[in-house]
Specification:
Layout lengths: L7 E9 L4 E7 L5 E7 L5 H16 L8 E6 L5 E6 L4 E2 H8 L4 H20 L2 E2 L8 E3 L5 E3 L6 E2 L19 H4 L1 H4 L6 H17 L14 H10 L11 H10 L10 H4 L3 H4 L4
Antiparallel strand pairs: 1-2, 2-3, 3-5, 4-5, 6-8, 7-10, 8-9
Helix pairs in contact: 3-6, 6-8
The structure holds adenosine-5'-diphosphate and magnesium ion.
Length: 275
């Protein structure tokens, strides 16, 4: 049952991003609510490529912790739209802004869910490459789902014209800046684990871990220096041993020492979490 644009009524804007606009929409016939990501046909070629990659990945994934795609719409104008399940709480970024920092207990549950999604993606040779609070969606059931595959990579593809990275570099791992120093047996998957470690720490602290407070906005060079030459961020005094150890396993600068998503699913911080 394909969905056409004319059957969808726009209710509100959910977010703007690099690639386009995401709307909350209602399907007139069924009254179902969806999220609709719309990308203009006349957009930048890079954005267009990103969109095709995102569609490609959404089509081949099926997992409770990966946002579900209900259809792809292409208009004669060249505009593209992705019909997705609507996540009614928003993103972990909005959760942080509206309800404040997350407790270790909540974070353990978030970590377990994101790791489950990442482990699935990695076993399907997909690297997300842009894990951060605003790309992790949440619903009322406290389900967390990975979204926004615009800069993701499918491994083993020889035809990958766009290896350059577009997006924020704040959550990028040391080996992505400097593969020679931190790459070891660099395969790319470990970069998602680094980003998850930073994300969880941010949700605990209430600000990005590589800056000292909420208001600080460092430039690209400052961030790169902090990531490559500084010690990796660690969980603050007062946190549990399990949480501290978990963050340490995610934020190993040398990518080959970092635990994989699959390994982290059996880390005490996560597997002792009460769902
Ligand atoms: P971009 O590549 O433009 O960042 P995203 O897929 O991350 O695109 O979407 C941008 C924003 O739209 C998200 O940060 C989020 O606020 C909102 N959004 C995206 N998908 C959904 C969804 N399925 N349900 C609810 N909100 C969503
Ligand atoms: Mg995004």
């Amino acid at each position: 049952h394909s969905i056409s644009v004319s059957e969808l009524e726009k209710l509100q804007v959910l977010g703007h991003g690099n690639s386009g606009t995401v709307y909350k929409v209602r399907h007139r016939r069924t009254s179902n609510i969806y999220a609709l990501k719309v990308v203009k046909g006349d957009c930048d070629p890079i954005v267009r490529r990103q969109l095709h990659r995102e569609i490609d990945i959404l089509r081949r994934t099926d997992h409770p912790q990966v946002v579900c795609c209900h259809g792809i719409i292409e208009k004669p104008t060249g505009d593209f739209a992705i019909v997705m399940e609507y996540m009614d709480v928003g993103t972990l970024e909005t959760v942080l802004l509206t309800t404040g920092t997350l407790s270790e207990r909540t974070l353990a549950d978030v970590a377990r869910q994101v790791l489950s999604g990442l482990s699935y993606l990695h076993s399907h040779r997909i690297i997300h490459r842009d894990i951060k609070p605003s790309n992790l969606l949440v619903n009322q059931k406290m389900e967390v789902k990975i979204a926004d595959f615009g800069v993701s990579k499918i491994m083993g593809r020889t035809l990958d014209p766009c290896n350059s990275y577009v997006g924020t570099c704040a959550y990028m791992s040391p080996e992505r800046f400097d593969p020679d120093a931190y790459g070891g047996s660099y395969d790319g998957y470990a970069a998602d684990v680094w980003s998850l470690g930073l994300t969880l720490l941010e949700l605990y602290l209430g600000h990005f871990p590589l800056v000292s407070g909420p208001g600080e906005r460092p430039d690209w060079a400052t961030l790169m220096c902090a990531i490559c030459f500084g010690d990796p961020p660690s969980s603050p005094v007062g946190t549990s041993d399990e949480f501290r150890s978990f963050i340490e396993c995610c934020l190993q600068k040398e990518s080959s020492k970092r635990w994989s998503a699959h390994q982290l699913l059996s880390h005490p911080f996560v597997c002792h979490a009460i769902p």
